[in-house]
Amino acid sequence: MNISVILPYANPHVLDWVLQLKNIGISLNIGCVKSTQDFRPGYFQEYDDISDIKYFYKSKECRRDFERNLNKSDILISLGIFDKELVLLRRFCKSNVRLLILSEPFNPINSKRELFLRKAWSLLLRQLYHNINFYCIGGSDVKKYYYDDLLFRKSVYYNFGYFPQVRFTDPIYKMKGETLIIGYLGQLIYRKGVDKLLILIDQLKNRPNLDFEFLIAGDGSMKKKIIDEIRGDNRFKYIGLISERTNVESFLEGIDILLVPSHFDGWGAVVNEGVAKCCAIVSNYNVYAYRFISGLLGEKSENQCDVVEVTIELINNVDKLNDLKEKMYSIHKCIDPISVAQEFAKSLNLNYKSKVFTIL
């Protein structure tokens, strides 16, 4: 089988599992329109220099090479649907090419609904591509948007996600009386739930007898508020920005409770990273990575999580903490890029019933 992949940039959360498809006999033709630095300055530069990927911004020949190989592909994968490349590249594809869209949920905080224009674009794509299916990074909410609002009524929808490569480590279980390590890793901005983080810090500061260490890593517009809030209590430490992946993994290896209090996260790759380190993750239903993982555990978490209440409960209940660590250990193999690539390839057969990427 031959698959082409068109990405706005070399997104590691997609490429880490896509590149594994080569190891199961699939030929890949991958094109990246822009540099990672246009989207994530300071991060992922190493993904701009992977052999066999055609980087359009580096030379016109790279683009032409990608276009020449398109007519060999049975499947075209795109990250998102509102990309002019899908129109520009159509004439190079097979007439019966299958278009598979990886798509996040609509962001209610940073985005505006331009439904008329999006409906018109969707109609154009349905004229150009006659076989369009969706891998929903965010599950049923993504399906609802495309099926109800944009009228993709004949498509098949799969529950899906982002799956970066993260080195797995065995869980470190805690004994009663041991100091617990709480961690936050991410942007220090409102969307990431830093307001909830500040409430938690205030509550914990008022409990001097609780034995914990709270490590905060990140940068953003609310950094000063965090630094001011933790001043004077040695149980809290601000680490600063961690950009290198190896340093992220080292940070998470020591964390017992990982906080992901976002008001909205179209995915939230820190959840993948926390799972690989067997952290007990405190998150809520608006973080779609946690929603996906809860589904694998057979749990429904539609109610918003009280980050303060749950964190304090875990500090006081080591057995429950260790149980959550054990659950993360059990599901890591489902979201490892190698396992994802194998399951994705099987899902291309519409008769295959995946237990991980279920049809919505």
Tell me the name of the CATH class of the largest domain.
Alpha Beta
List the uncertain runs.
Answer: none
| Number of discrete domains | 2
Which sequence of SSEs, written as H and E, runs from N to C?
EHEEHEHEHEHEEHEHEHEHEHHHH
| CATH topology grouping of the largest domain | Rossmann fold
- Strand arrangement across the biggest beta sheet: 3-2-1-4-5-6-7
Tell me about the largest β-sheet.
Answer: 7 strands, parallel
The CATH architecture name of the largest domain reads 3-Layer(aba) Sandwich
C-alpha end-to-end distance = 25 Å
Give the overall form: elongated
Structural class, from secondary structure content? alpha/beta
Q: How many E strands?
A: 12
Mean pLDDT: 90
What is the percent of helical residues? 25-40%
Beta content comes to 15-25%
